[in-house]
Design goal:
The complex is a heterodimer. Chain A is of the alpha+beta class. Chain A is built from 17 helices and 18 strands. Classes of the chains: A alpha+beta, B alpha+beta.
Chain lengths: 497, 377
């Protein structure tokens, strides 16, 4: 489906032909795509239900080229959508009809590895996993590991503040980046953060993370590396009730253990994954928990002992410790393949990303179950249980007229439920174009206006990825959503739309 | 699910919002203060006092979620006590500098203690906040969940902004369990080997949560399970003829600047640098002069320096090394010099411009702690 997004009224002050002429003086011919067959591969990102052919695509090779391109776009009011590997699940890199796509794929060099200070300086197009691969020989690694880590770029990780299965212990992208070089929409190069652990002034480094390419173009990233744990072990526990598994997660954590990873899969996810990769999952269990601990051998032994006790006390029917590294990887392979496994069950699936306080898990699962019945759409649940980050996958068939719309509506209701239960509409996938309406549920007009003011502080003409991330207030008015928090409508004094 | 909720009416939200709204309408400057324990870190602010001191109380505490939401006037000491009762802690070890330090001031200053390189900084553990912006609007950013990418991360932006971007009313923090075992020890080592040594301990996988250097001695803290710490301690002992036992209270004395090291009369500088200098060959020690005294923390990434050397010289050095220098305490510094320099390292013109635009987006009439970090902000 071609999805024309509201680009906030950006109107180009230059023709496509003139723009091509101008850019061809900056980048070589193979870095400038403007014929429709060349543009086709860029029409969508990981949220493929939404498509839009851009005006043109540029693939600069240097920071200087980016600066020149940006200055021209600023001068002629051309919107810029920055793209890494295009793995966004929220449409963050969805092109605009009259905007350019600035692909950073060619900026894929690891500039410097500083094994003394545990850092790596990389270009934004470097793949997440390529960093860990490059420093593996030094016994170091880069911790955030989104499921798309084979493909996704570090620049995109910054834009989305990517997480992964290990962020409970090792944090999100924002916790693992020391410095960014960023080009503003006016073409100025900012150095944000430093090689030290903090910087003077405001914490712009934090602000840039998760800003979905709306505040600046990231052209260099200094990431923090961690020492590889000496020992890593994983336990798999099966349960006869999903809620028991959920409660056990809280018990592990309140027992004083912060596992490196803690994942929950429900019965349908277990079955799909098992059929797909044969990870040895118990297909008759209602839920499984995968719990990984790491550290020195002595530390891991102590933690395994404690986790095992909590799991059994918590009502696990069965607990398995992976006997060797191979089995550990197999256990994880099932979880990491959960999405493609679900892809075999249904022509299409829609991945949600709500986050809730863990103790609300029972309520939210019940709500999802009820919605599934109501809409007649099956749901598979995988859950970053340690972080309270849910990924319900709604199964649908886009070829059935109206089914995508129905799915989106159901997804919206799941996210509203997450907000009502004290959570958020997106834990790690970003708002993009997908959750703009739900932003109106989570934030009140004054809060949304504050975000828009921050956007303008960086980008006075609103040319960087306009129409993503933050809804304009008139959109919320049309959507008719009211901001709800903890089930209440706060600030009754504020004007409602 | 255990949630501890306050019963006393310590909620000053309404009064504080109306005070800021009125100040916005009248374009009247406000000087925001908790209990003033970290006021020495900012430049004096003119304007009428806006005190968050009595805006107190725990709003939500979910030990099993590792999260707490508190009002900004809540005493840091009180908060730590509540957490300790549940076997939890603030992982960034914020310094108090006074018994009456509040959590609001702690977050506004954004300081972190010795565990910072190993567990994270104040802003790393901020999950959400409720603030009043310079228009007198009550805004809620982030939340009480570990992962949240809805909207820009304004809660972390506000951390360390000393009230210049908003009045912090509530803050939600991520917590960690207290480690079952902590063990501290010291050994003698030349100063130029300290950072390398800490690095090698990290490479060996030891659970370090503190590494500082003072008067020829490296001080190390390990934290983890009983077994894990005992194992690491034995391993480390194999490589040292003498390990001195150190009381764990050493770290809070360091953090609170109560060690005798902090008794000097020269200006106290806080230099944040890469742990191991990579730029040029000169190391920090070569830049010290006879009267200079230094304590190294964060495994080399933080240096406390008592020095009469010129402001420019100290800042140039810090910049050359890829870091920055903050004048932490003026002490006997010439009053005119003290007034004429910003406490934090000056920003480049492009960075200052973006800072000013952010300030004006949050506080268009510049009524909130104007000039507290730099005169322009």
């Amino acid at each position: 489906m071609t999805f024309k997004i509201d680009d906030w009224g950006v109107r180009n002050q230059i023709s496509k032909h003139e723009l091509v002429q101008t850019f061809s003086k900056i980048v070589p011919a193979n870095s400038l795509l403007f014929e429709s067959e060349d543009l086709k591969p860029y029409e969508c990102d990981g949220l493929s239900a939404y498509r839009q052919i851009p005006l043109m695509v540029l693939l600069p090779e240097t920071t200087e080229q980016i600066q020149q391109i940006i200055r021209i776009c600023f001068k002629y009011q051309v919107a810029v959508v920055t793209r890494g590997s295009g793995t966004s699940l929220s449409g963050g890199a969805l092109p605009l009809e009259n905007g350019i796509v600035l692909s950073l794929a060619k900026l894929n060099k690891i500039i410097e590895i500083d094994q003394e200070n545990f850092t790596a300086r990389v270009q934004p197009g470097v793949r997440n996993l390529a960093i860990s691969d490059a420093v593996n020989a030094y016994d170091l690694y880069y911790a955030p590991d989104p499921s798309s880590q084979i493909a996704c770029s570090i620049g995109g990780n910054v834009a989305e503040n990517a997480g992964g299965v290990h962020c409970l212990k090792y944090g999100l992208t924002v916790h693992n980046v020391l410095q960014l070089k960023v080009i503003t929409m006016e073409g100025e190069l900012l150095e944000i953060g430093s090689e030290a652990l903090d910087s003077p002034g405001y914490d712009l480094l934090a602000l840039m993370h998760g800003s979905e390419g709306m505040l600046g173009v990231v052209v260099e990233v200094l990431v923090k590396l961690l020492v590889k744990p000496k020992v890593t072990k994983v336990l798999m526990a099966s349960f006869d009730k999903v809620t028991t598994a959920g409660e056990t997660v809280s018990k592990i954590i309140s027992g004083g253990i912060v596992p490196a990873g803690l994942e929950l899969m429900d019965k349908s996810a277990i079955k799909a994954a098992e059929d797909f990769v044969h990870a040895g999952y118990p297909v008759d269990a209602a839920a499984i928990l995968l719990c990984e601990v790491d550290g020195s051998l002595a530390e891991v032994d102590a933690q395994i002992e404690q986790v095992q006790a909590v799991l059994k006390e918590g009502g696990a029917i069965d607990v398995h410790i992976a006997v060797d590294e191979e089995q550990r990887k197999t256990f994880w392979a099932g979880r990491k393949a959960a999405f493609p496994a679900v892809g075999r069950l249904s022509p299409d699936y829609y991945c949600m990303d709500g986050t809730i306080p863990r103790f609300q898990l029972g309520k939210v699962l019940q709500r999802i179950h009820d919605l599934s019945d109501e809409y007649g759409l099956a749901v598979v649940n995988v859950f970053h249980a340690g972080d309270g980050n849910l990924h319900p996958l709604i199964l649908y068939d886009a070829n059935n007229p109206g089914e995508l719309e129905k799915t989106e509506k159901m997804g919206g209701e799941i996210l509203s439920a997450c907000v009502e239960l004290g959570g958020t509409i997106t834990g790690e996938h970003g708002v993009g174009v997908e959750k703009l309406d739900q932003m109106c549920v989570q934030f009140n007009p004054a809060e949304l206006q504050q975000f828009l003011d921050i956007k303008t502080a960086f980008d006075t003409k609103n040319l960087l990825n306009p129409g993503k991330g933050i809804p304009l207030l008139h959109r919320c008015a049309e959507f008719g959503a009211l901001h709800v928090h903890h089930g209440k409508l706060p600030h009754p004094e504020l004007e409602r739309f | 699910m255990a949630s501890q909720t306050d019963t006393n009416n310590q909620d000053q939200t309404e009064q504080l919002v109306s005070q800021v709204r009125m100040a916005y309408e009248n374009r009247q400057a406000l000087s925001i203060q908790g209990n003033g324990s970290k006021a020495f870190l900012i430049h004096p602010v003119s304007g009428s006092l806006l005190s968050t001191s009595s805006h107190q109380g725990v709003i939500n505490y979910f030990p099993s979620e590792l999260t707490i939401t508190v009002r900004s006037g809540t005493l840091l000491s009180e908060l730590k006590k509540i957490l300790a009762e549940q076997g939890q802690m603030l992982p960034f070890e914020p310094p108090a500098y006074s018994e009456n330090a509040t959590i609001g001031g702690t977050i506004a200053a954004g300081l972190s203690g010795s565990s910072r390189p190993y567990t994270g900084s104040a802003r790393d553990f901020v999950l959400g906040c409720k603030v009043i912006n310079g228009r007198g609007e009550l805004l809620h950013f982030g939340g009480e969940v570990m992962k949240n990418v809805a909207g820009y991360d304004l809660s972390r932006l506000i951390t360390g902004s000393y009230g210049g971007l908003g009045v912090i009313l509530e803050v939600s923090l991520k917590l960690l369990p207290l480690a079952p075992k902590q063990q501290s020890f010291s050994f003698s080592i030349p100063s130029n080997q300290f950072s390398h040594h800490v690095r090698s301990l990290q490479m060996a996988g030891h659970p370090i949560t503190g590494a500082c250097y003072l008067d020829g001695q490296a001080y190390i803290r390990l934290a983890g399970s009983e077994k894990g710490v005992a194992f690491s301690y034995q391993e480390i002992r194999k490589n040292h003829s003498l390990l001195n036992e150190v009381n764990n209270s050493f770290w809070s004395e360091l953090n609170e600047q109560q060690l005798s090291f902090f008794d000097h009369s020269q200006p106290l500088w806080r230099l944040s640098l890469p742990a191991l200098p990579t730029k040029g060959t000169e190391n920090f020690e070569q830049n010290l002069i006879a009267e200079d005294k230094q304590l190294i923390d964060w495994g080399g990434a933080l240096r406390w320096l008592y020095s009469n050397q010129s402001v420019d010289k100290i800042r140039q050095y810090a910049k050359l090394q890829g870091g920055h220098a903050q004048l932490f305490r003026g002490n006997n510094m010439d009053t005119d010099v003290l007034k004429s320099i910003p406490k934090q390292q000056p920003l480049t013109p492009v960075m200052m411009k973006i800072h000013q635009q952010i300030k004006s987006a949050m506080d268009p009439h510049a009524i909130l702690n104007h000039g507290c970090i730099y005169p322009e902000l």
